[in-house]
Amino acid sequence: MRALNADQIKGNWATLLSAWNSDGSLDMERVADEADVLIDMNVDGIYSNGTTGEFHCQNEKEFDRISECLAEKCNNAGMPFQIGVSHMSAQISLERLRRVVHLAPSAVQVILPDWFPVSDEEAVAFLKLMAEAAEGIGLVLYNPPHAKRVLDPEQVGRLSRLVPELTGLKTAGGDQIWYASMREHIPHLSVFVPGHLLASGIQQGASGSYSNVACLNPAAAQRWTEQIYQDMSSALELEKRLKEFMKNYIAPFITKKGFCNGACDRFMAVVGGWADVGSIMRWPYRSIPESEAPRVRQAGQRLIPGFF
């Protein structure tokens, strides 16, 4: 695929979840099947090795196999795709990037080095060398709430002026003040917000979502994305029900039971039943028991029936 600029990175991008066997080994056959399903669902794009793809739990051979599999399938199908080259170590992240450039992703996702918070000067130094290694492929900065440094739009804007290869931002978003700052400081970037906030996010100037909602049902998330551009009023009504579903039936696994975010995204894929990725998180992270799925599925069928 050709590299995409900021204006071209938009809409509903679905994650490629890793699939683990009971012994903790990577099941590439199931990963490959999942990529085929996502391509058949005709989502706006696919990305690998984010938090839900468990980039932090992969060894380098596994990272290469997943990246090569996604690239081959998407390049053959003409499907836009991004590869997450993130790692807590700047050195490993740089080497991952150098190894995937020849796969021609539409963009690459990176996090800032994450053992000790980087200064502004260090963040610029990191992104500049990553941009040089990317050889014209744009960088999407993945800056989740649990990052060691969570940047506001003004800070991202300063980075993008010094590193013009910065194409996009993956963020948790914020309130109306945050969106006003986004429109002021980074109107030139592709800004992606959480999937269940996509309608209100686009209404306030965001570009799309690397979508948690797509973990539940990528095809339904794609239909909703198209509805946003055609009938915002109806899309916002669905967003209210999605927020209720997430607040009451997904978020408590994090806030009350202490599961990690990736476990919730994987659990939603189990609830949605669109692909055989399983509920297993890789050691040492806990997996949400599949026995919880019928209760959550029943609630989803009531609140957001179009996703089931």
From TrEMBL:
EC top class named in words: lyase
Entry's EC annotation: 4.1.3.3
Example of a GO biological process term: N-acetylneuraminate catabolic process
Coiled-coil annotated spans: none
Gene Ontology MF, one: N-acetylneuraminate lyase activity
Taxonomy, superkingdom: Bacteria
Record keywords: Lyase, Schiff base
This protein's record includes keyword Lyase: yes
Pfam (any one): DHDPS
GO cellular component, one term: cytosol
Full protein name: N-acetylneuraminate lyase
Source organism (scientific name): Sedimentisphaera salicampi
